[in-house]
Amino acid sequence: MSSDTPILPEDPAVLKAMIAALQAENARMAATIKAHDLLIQTLQMRIAKLRKQAFGKSSEKIEREIEQLELALEDLLIASAESATTLADEDEADPAPEAKTGDVDKHKPRRRPRISEATPRERRELDPGSCCPDCGGDLRLVGEDMSEMLDLVAAQLKVLQIARLKKSCRRCEKMVQTPAPSRPIPGSMASAALPAWILVSKFDDHLPLYRLNEIFARMGADIPDSTLVDWCGRAMKVLTPLVERIEADVMASDLLHADDTPIRVLNRSLKDRGLGKGVKQGRIWAYVRDPRPWAGTAPPAAVYRFAPDWKQEHVQSHLAQARGILQADGYKGYAKLYAPDPDGTPRLQEASCRAHLRRDFHDEWDKTKSAIAREALDRIGALYDIEREINGQPAEIRLPARQKHSAPKVEAFFAWSESQIMRIPGKGDLARAFR
Length: 435
What we know:
Largest sheet: 5 strands, mixed
Structural class: alpha/beta
Helix content: 40-55%
Low-confidence stretches: 93-106
Number of domains: 4
Radius of gyration: 31 Å
Number of strands: 7
Order of helices and strands: HHHEEHHHEEEHEHEHHHH
Shape: extended
Number of helices: 12
Distance between the termini: 76 Å
C-alpha cells in the first residue's frame, strides 16, 4: 500500500460521520454543478434568441449583449472543465451519426478535434531498441500502436538579410551586382508574408491593429500603428488588380447566389452625441459562385461589396452586367433585375431561396408551436432530403431526380398552402410566411 494512503480510524461511529460528511460534500458539489449546467443552458438559449433578433433587425445593443453573454458562457465552460473530476478522453472515436440523439448532442458535446487531411503529419517513432531488456535476445517488429497529438508551430518573426554581393571584373574593372528584389510594398521592410498575415488577422480574425502591435511587440518588433495602417492600405492597393480579376470572373457566372448582412459603420458626424451614437448601419453584399453541388468545374468564389445603406441602386449597380440565374431572397431591389432589357433580352432569372421561406415557418413554430407551421417545415424538409441525395451529382442526374421526386412535392405544397391560407387569419405571421 502507498505511504500516501490516509490511515482511517477504527471506530465505526467516526467512520459513519466521515461518510456522512463526504456524502454531504458530494451533494453540495453536485448541486453546484447542476446550477452551473442550468446557467450554461440559460445563457445558450438567451444567445440563440438574441441572434435571431439580431438577424431580423440588427441593433448595436443586441450585438453588445450577445458578446457579453458569450464571454460569460465561455468563462463558465472553462470553469466547469477546470473543476471536472474526470478527464475527457479525446482519443475516443466520435459516436456513430445514427446513434446520436438531440439530448446526447446537447449534454455530451464532441471532444475530439477534427483535423483536415491536408494538415501536415510528422511521424515520431519510439523504438525500444534491438535487444530484449529482460534476456538480451533480438527483437523483431510485430506491429505498432499509433496515437496522435495536435501541435502548433507558433508564429515567429525573422529578419531576411538580403546581401547583394558586389564583384569587380579583374580584366575590365566593371562592377557587377544582382539587382535588388522587388518588394510588395516599395520602400518598406515588409515581405509578402507579413502584410498577408496582417490583412487576414484584421479582416478575417477581426483583430484591431493596436492588438497586432502588441502581438508583434511580444515577438520582439515594435511596429507603430501608423506603419501598420500604411502597410494595410498599400497592400490592398497592390491586391486591387487581383481582386478585380476575381470579381469579373465571379460576376460573369451564369448562376449567382446573392445575400446581404448589416454592418456597423462609424459615423463621425454623430460622434459628439455620446457613447454608441457615432455609428450607423451599412450593408455588406455577398455574391457567391459555387458549382460544387452539381459537379461544376469552376472553383467556388465570393465577391463582397460594401454599401452605406440598403438602397436598391446599390444591388442594381453591382449586378448591372450579370446574366443568368440569381438565387436570392425577396428583397425588392432585385425586382428590376428580373425584368428584360428594353430590346427584350432576358437579364436575370429569379431562383427564390427556399431557406428564407423555411425560416419564416420555423420562427412561427418556435413562437406558437403551430401544427400548420410544423407540417410546412416537414414538407420543406422532404425536399431537402431529396437535395442531399443528389448533391454533387451532374445536371443529367439531378434534373430527372427533381422532376420525378421534387416536382410532385412542390405542387402538393402549393396546393396545401392555398387550402391552409383560407383557415388562418390573413394578417398574422403565419399568413405572411405563406405569402
